[in-house]
Amino acid sequence: MQSEIKICQNCKSQFVIDPEDFSFYEKIQVPPPTFCYECRTVRRLAFRNELNLYKRKCAAPEHGEEMISIYAPEKPLVIYDQKFWWTDGWDPFACGRPYDFSKPFFQQWLELRNSFPLMSVSNSNAINSDYCNVADQSKDCYLISGSFNCEKTMYSNRVNQIKDSSDLHVAHRSELCYDGVYLSDCYRVLLSKNCWHCLDAYFLYDCRNCSNCFGCVNLRNKQYCFFNEQLSKDEYAKRLKELDLGDYATVKKLKDKFVELQSRAIHKYADILHSVNVVGDKVDNAKNCYYAFDITDGAEDSKYIHWGGLGVQDVYDGGPGVGIVNNAYEVFDTGLEGSMNLFTSVVYGSNNVRYAFNCYNCSDLFGCIGLRSKQYCILNKQYAKEEYEGLVPKIIAHMNEMPYVDGRGRVYGYGEFFPMELSPFAYNESVAQDYFPLTKEEAAKRGYSWRENEERHYEQTMAASQLPDNIRDVSDDILKQVIECEHKGVCNDNCTVAFKFIPAELQFYRRIGIPLPHFCFKCRHYARLRQRHPLKTWRRQCACDYKVHNNTIKHAHHLQGRCSNEFETIYAPDRPEIVYCESCYNSEVV
Predict the structure, then answer these.
(1) To pair with 487 at 20 to 30 A between CA atoms, which of 309, 513, 541, 583?
(2) 441, pLDDT greater than 50
């Protein structure tokens, strides 16, 4: 079988389907995609809102209490408080309907979705963690999302097994960490990026197995280093004591210096550990994976996956949130012991499920929403096994004979994920805006919806500039204040304009000795997002050269000229970073 070049029906760019792709599509019995990888990713992300929370009333009979919801109050949807949603006090089959062969499938699914009770937030097995979303097994957490098994964690996203931490993006198995991006197995690592197995450190970039280090880059197995200078234990303690890290102005200057340090560091083409035949970034223990990003604890024979792992196998177009699942395609927030999940979102512990949303421990579903421990259902209507197995092939044929056509003329038959115009979220409410940011005008040109920021009328009692400069000067009275965000809503970060500190947050800042932040949690979140790499790679040549500009020998691990190695990297060719192949990187750093 030969590779084929296709034209994306969304962006009109060319994309390639390789022979192994055709083999996968044939195995799971779906046609090849008509959208390119990036447009498929955007389409899925547009159905996931993680951080935008609203107040609206519970629609359950005899309830009506105000609750926190990911669905904006003006959306004409039926929303139940998630705690009531998990009870047996309502019937998920009440909105079920027989399949109508006179309408496109996606139109029928939309009608079901608009009448079906949806969970206010996706927050399962939570203890004292009401303000969390897309979260599982949270305890004493606040405003975390895309999370699993976290405790006493705040303002963090894409976090797994984190404790006593705040302001993290993509972090695993770490404790007492703050303001970090890409941290794994760290303890008390603050204001750092790309670190593994480090402890008691500040301002580290690309460091592994380091402790008691400050302002360092590209270190391995080091201790008591200060801006990459090796010191004795006593000298390091003396240097550290000279810095008042509880002072806002001091930390701000150090942050600026840290950015400069990163720009001069050597950057490996990608962070891929203990893996074989992998293209992507931030991947460990994987084999035969292409375009894999933010994957931990294993993945195999998968393509176009991000934020997941935990042993996924044979998964295409998975994520964010894909783990412990095999034979899955075009899914997000799916897994936890599942198989043959196609075009699903928020589906756990289920098998042979297609076009489903928010279903748990089910099998043999097609086009269902909100079912638990059910089997042989179509559009939330129960069938006998023989009826189900006879009807599904007819529905698949009907989806191709009468496809859904959206307002821009894009055609959706069997094998396509849900049309973006069916998403209950505007583009800028969804994770699509996080990974593929657009302006309002750009979104409109592509036919994507947009939600204007609400006018906020907070009675602000203090400007960020009026906050105490040093954490030691902060009294408990700060908990009563409404702080004006330093951005004042004039930014592209979904600024909340004002914010308050909660008791656990203040206690945390005091514990680690860090000054109070001057920005709301959304502005801080987007600042971290700008530090992450895109979900794509470029072909580049290693930048390692035998000589530097002044004709002085730099190193001798290749004998002349520039290294000839090429690679797929997350650094675009026009970026200024010094990017090395693995061999040159290991010769210089490891």
Answers:
(1) 513
(2) yes
293: which 2 tokens? 């990003």
CB 156 within 8 A of CB 144: yes
- What are the sequence ranges of the domains in the chain? 176-268, 462-529, 538-588
For residues 546 and 560, the answer to whether their CB atoms sit within 8 Å is: yes
What are phi and psi for residue 521, nearest 5 degrees?
-65, -30
Q: pTM of whole model > 0.85?
A: yes
Q: Are 134 and 50 a contacting pair, CB within 8 Å?
A: yes
Contact between residue 527 and residue 520 where contact means Cβ atoms under 8 Å apart: no
Question: Residue 185 is encoded by which pair of tokens?
Answer: 């197995």
pLDDT higher than 50, residue 42: yes
Q: CA gyration radius for the chain?
A: 25
28 burial via Cβ count (<10 Å: 0-12, 13-18, 19+): middle
Written as one letter, the residue type at 523 is: C
CA 147, distance to chain mean position in Å, is 9
For the stretch 350-381, pLDDT in tens is 999 999 999 999 999 999 999 999 999 999 99
Q: Coil, strand, or helix at residue 306?
A: strand
Q: What is the distance between the alpha carbons of residues 343 and 39, in angstroms, rounded to a whole number?
A: 15
Reported as type and span, the H/E element at residue 508 is helix 503-512
Residues 542-564: b if buried by 16+ CB within 10 A, e if exposed: bbbbeeeeeeeeeeeebeeeebe
